[in-house]
Design brief:
The protein has 479 residues and is an alpha/beta fold. The protein is 48% helix and 11% strand.
Length: 479
Amino acid sequence: MSDYAPMEAPKALDAETWLLGGVLQDPKALGELSLLLKNGGEFFMGKNQAVWNAMISLYKEDNPIDIITLANALERDGKLSQVGGKEYLFSLMESVTNAAHIDYYAKIIRDKYILRSLISSSNENIRDSSKPEAEVEDVLKSAQKRILDLTNDQIKENIQPAGDIAKIVLDKLVNRKAGDLSGCPTNFKDLDALTNGLQKTDLIILAGRPGMGKTAFALNVATNAARCGKTVLFFTLEMSAEQIITRILSSMANVNQKQLKHGQNIISTETAKNLIVTSQTLATMPLFIDDSSEARAFDLLSKCRIFKRKHGSLDLVVVDYLQLMLKDGRAESEAVGIGENSRMLKVLAKELDVPVLVLSQLNRETEKRSATTTGNKPQLSDLRGSGSIEQDADMVWFIHRPAYYNKEKEDDGFQASEEEKEKNEAEKRKASLIIAKYRNGPTTNIDLEFIGEITTFKDRRFTPISHPDDIGFSDNFGS
């Protein structure tokens, strides 16, 4: 436990004096400064807070700002004598000869205010932690909120001339080679053609019923991107890291997952060599996995910030899945908690300039609908937990496999011919990626093929496919 106690609060009294004097020298500067110093609370000295607030009041009323008008405004509020009268205002104006460095002074004042706020926040954390009834989770939530509120309170200058932005866009277009993608590749031909790769700052929702293939497809996308040299961070809230790697090895090595589960007793020497080579390839890929079972959206944002600083790049974030993320205990309902998490994931995408692919559950409505209407194909209204998921997302994808809804029809005692078996097998493999929302493009369906034995989706082909090391087909790997 540290015994450190600050001797005095961080402050910059000279900067406060020079800034106020600079405004009196050049009142036009106040508009820009008001974006950075939003209220008098940034000033340490009470009389400087009063002077600043009076200046802001005059500015909002579009009145001139000089010694006389400022003195009148302070006197009207009963604060002229508190600041030291007109003499103090004259001393402020005489403290500087011009407003040349006024923005620099404002930054110093803002920085000192932030440091004081951090000290205050830390003291509140200490008080909360010291209470006999303190609950760790509640204290952590309060501490995180204080820091997040302080972070969000910072004004970032994002305004840019259109010409400057056009130059950046043109440079990218001119330097892009034919066939290059502007975003992170998925290696699904039609999907990449539609999106030009997963675009930075986009929040992409991948939804489906349990067992439909959400995790399998997300892993395929993550692995394909990493194979192309893109840095991928995969958060798995449901499965362990070892389970995830087992799936990846099965898919990359084209080895039936059942064999991997049963181990060396049924794995041939050739298959074992294949797995070793695949494992070595995997070791060279910039794919990283976090299997923390309990995580808040704020935790993911913090982890991604640290990861990007450490590794220097981050090209794709995958979260499996949204409904398993911890919600704020103060959220009035599960839907509100899910909505807050989806908004934070959009913040993550924008702040770190990275596409974020988030898996989400669907409700049971797809299984209740009659095949005579929309069939079992999912709709945006089927997103489970919160309507804000659709609102926050730049894209919404649905994984759909018709065979998922026809399991009860598979075993009817009919002895099928080889040709019929082949046809049934092809039907089992049919899948589609439904692009239900695309903020920057058209909605459409993309044909895919699902190979359940190795939990792999591929671009649909129309030729028979042999089973990889077949020891029995199963649809139980599609979650």
